Amino acid sequence: MNFIKAIIFGIIEGITEWMPISSTAHMKILNVFLPLEVSGEFYEVFEVVIQLGAILALLLVFWNKVWPFGRSDNPLGKGALSDIKKDKFFLWLKIIIACMPAIVFELFLDDKFNFVNESNEMKVIGVSLLVVGFVFLLVEMIVRNKKFTVSNTKRITFLQAIVIGLAQLIAAIFPGVSRSGATIIAALLIGISRSTATEFTFELAIPVMFGASLMKILKYGMAFSAADIMLLLFGCVSAFMVSLFMIRFVLNYVKRNTFTVFGIYRVLMGLIVLILLK
């Protein structure tokens, strides 16, 4: 039964990771109604590590967008540098810069802001879902008739990358905010189009999610039983398969639509959590 649950967790991860509705919140909620029969310590590892399946799907879909090596019409320089694509090189510089606030927070400040515990976790998640849902609705009203100045990830400036990176800290402090939700809202407010904000957020997820998974594994100490490894494998594979569809779906959706539907969903889900799981 645990293996079936792991597949369901992977499916939910694959669906919610690519929408600004907080995959972490949905995993926590799912674990209330369909708890994995594992230790609390291993569940924390499982919750993060199955994201590897989702991120591998992202790499497969985004390979041509992010792979910086190979002959191109715009090489970084001559000689050995001629095999580095200039636009991809600067994209990765922006991604690294956007990741720095989260890295500093994780290494030096995380313990100082760790106010969430088992007794208040669901309340915090419910409030976060609700508040960020209203923020999405407000932001969409603000930018409704606004002409976005950035419609391609190549045109994102280093300053804008820093602003987007700082927005991630809100999600790091408050579970339920959603990393992608926070970064997309920040991007919209500084003039980045919906599709470009979503694409950059996805690209930013590559080092963030890989790093988070690696740190969890190292912190756990690699003390995995055969059953633990199978649970992680089942969760990763199902997250990978679902993500292949969801990544393309969300990218196509935001090209033609606003984030209003996600804001409404978050508000409703937040109310449900606060009423039923308070």
Summarize the structure.
With 278 residues, the chain is mostly helical. Helix content is 72%, strand content 0%.
Q: How would you characterize this protein structure?
A:
The chain is mainly alpha-helical and 278 residues long. It has one domain (2-276). Helix content is 72%, strand content 0%. The chain contains 11 helices and no strands. The protein has helices spanning 2-16, 23-33, 40-49, 51-66, 86-109, 121-142, 158-173, 179-189, 194-220, 226-256, 260-276. The longest helix has 31 residues, at 226-256. It is globular. It starts with a helix and ends with a helix. The mean pLDDT is 92.
Relevant terms:
single chain, 278 residues, mainly alpha
List the helices and strands and how they pair.
Layout: H1 2-16, H2 23-33, H3 40-49, H4 51-66, H5 86-109, H6 121-142, H7 158-173, H8 179-189, H9 194-220, H10 226-256, H11 260-276
Helices, by number, come to 11
Number of domains: 1
Radius of gyration: 19 Å
Q: Give the helices and strands as they follow along the chain.
A: HHHHHHHHHHH
